[in-house]
Amino acid sequence: MSVSSLGSFESAGLVVADRTAHQKRVSRRVAMDVVGVIDITAVVLGAILPAWIYAQAGGLEINPVTIVKSALVTAMLFFVCMQAWNMYDLNRVKDLPVHPGRLLAALIMATFAALGLGVPFNVAEVHLWVWYAAWISASFVAILGMRLVCRAVLNRMTAAGAFDTRVAVFGAGEIARRVQNNLKNEATGIRFVGVYDDRPRDRLDADNLDIKGRLEDLMAQGRRGAIDQIVIALPQSADRRMSMIANQLQHLPVSIHMVTHLSSDLVEGGPAHKVSSIGGVGLLDVKDRPLTDWAPMVKRAEDLMLGGLLLALALPVMVLVAIAIKLESKGPVLFRQRRRGLNLAIFDVLKFRTMTCMEDGQKIEQAHASDPRVTKVGRVLRRLSLDELPQLINVLKGEMLLVGPRPHALAHDAQWGEQVKTYGIRHQMKPGITGLAQVEGWRGEVTGENDIASRVKEDLAYIRNTVGS
Question: Strand, coil or helix: what is 133?
Fold first, then answer.
């Protein structure tokens, strides 16, 4: 998709992400990890509380370090046993019985496996066994109770669609009908969004198919965050059309699959070698959605902590830079320019002003060596990259990342989007203060088509490497 068409999305109001859609959904992996943490906490508390009560009531001296160490090791062993028995699967936790027998067996095995750490009391053996019995009983009751609570909460969240995988199909025909029938099986945990196709209605075999719109409507839904996966369901003979559709859809922050065979050289922007399935439908994976499960929260926490620390450390330098800019030339200290972020959303990037002009229109001339518009202070700031420091504020606001594809001016987006077809794929991730392209030496003025193509190649490599991280 060329960036020249981005204006139509912007004018239609489709570049604004649907925050509500994101807030309502929860990763299955994150939910199960939370259940695992709750189990570990129950085991630890089940060890510490009886030990404390037993010490207070019996007047026994205990070693708190040994108690905590024994509790933590036992909790981790219990967690491993539960994983081995596949007890952290969403459907098992919310649908099946709590399996008290397996919970107790895992707890007993973990507890006695931890006995090699040493005894928690330097007293008669009878006290040791009383404490272990109290530990197992308290932990078992706590785990059982929390599992019942988790089951109720997870069932309520499931009913609200929090764990649904929202899947759309492109291509109306017999293949799409078979895909739709499989996806509408509620046991798969998949919510079928609908079928999309660009052909005229009179050419579609649309009986019993829920046709929602055309390719542009599918792209709009993908950018709004209303779709998680897209299945391209076209006949094998339509390889050129599949290639075109796949390359268009790669710009979206969604997972893309194909029902029919597709050699990897038909899809630009990366290989497509993995095979998967949805329900009973075999698929060839074109691309995965970047930053899933814990990754968005981890990356956001990382940016908040590191960004806040870097901003605090940089404040004295930023004050001196601001004074230098004001002393040299008239005008604001900060330069604001519109840039595109995640899903084409437009935001104002912040930089220290390094030029005598404040361009932000349809045509922007890049700064170049010996550019007379660059001030003396500006040359120093650009050489040391100090003009980028205010973008730490963009990071804290959630508009940018510390590391990601560098954002460009809107005019340059349009120009370079025409030159490099995969340019728009960069917008499926928030832009960064620096990125892999800059680390590899692609900095400063863009000198030609090969230059921007090389930068895009590095940006897309970084995005692919963040899938599921």
Answer: helix
- CA 164, CA 228: separation in Å to the nearest integer? 9
- Set out the domains of the chain in order of their start, with CATH numbers: 3-12+164-287 (3.40.50.720), 28-159 (no CATH), 295-465 (no CATH)
Cα three-residue angle 419-421-426, rounded to 5 degrees: 105
How far apart CA 13 and CA 38 sit, in angstroms, is: 42
What token pair was written down for 361? Answer: 């229109």
Long-range pairs of 90-94 with CB within 8 A, sequence gap ≥ 24: 90/28, 90/31, 90/32, 90/154, 90/163, 90/189, 91/189, 93/32, 93/35, 93/147, 93/150, 93/151, 93/154, 94/150, 94/151, 94/154, 94/155, 94/158
pLDDT tens-digit profile, the chain (469 residues): 444 444 433 333 333 334 334 446 788 888 899 999 999 999 998 888 887 877 777 666 777 887 888 889 889 999 998 888 888 888 777 765 667 888 888 888 888 877 654 444 444 455 667 777 888 889 899 898 888 898 889 888 888 878 888 889 998 877 778 777 777 665 567 788 889 998 876 666 666 787 889 999 999 999 988 899 999 988 777 778 888 898 899 889 898 988 754 444 455 545 445 667 666 666 767 777 777 788 888 889 999 999 999 999 999 999 999 999 999 888 899 999 899 998 889 999 999 998 887 766 566 777 766 778 888 998 999 889 899 999 999 999 999 999 999 998 888 888 888 888 888 888 889 999 998 888 888 877 787 778 888 899 998 888 887 754 4
Q: How far apart are CA 175 and CA 83, in angstroms?
A: 37
Residue 435 to residue 16: CA distance in whole angstroms: 24
Report if pTM > 0.85.
Answer: no
Question: Would you say the C-alpha torsion 272, 273, 275, 281 has a positive or negative sign?
Answer: positive
Give the pair of three-digit tokens for residue 368: 């170049």
Q: List the beta bridge partners of residue 285.
A: 257
Give the residue from 217, 229, 118 showing the smallest Cα distance to 164.
229
Tokens 């998967």 appear where?
276
The residue among 319, 383, 382 whose CA lies nearest residue 351 is: 382
Q: Which amino acid belongs to residue 388?
A: E
- Between CA 24 and CA 6 the distance in angstroms is 28
The rounded distance, in Å, linking the Cα atoms of 14 and 204 is 27
Q: How far apart are CA 249 and CA 229, in angstroms?
A: 11
Selection from 18, 20, 30, 21 nearest residue 297 by Cα: 30
Sheet holding 190-196, edge to edge: 211-213, 190-196, 165-170, 229-232, 255-258, 281-287, 275-278
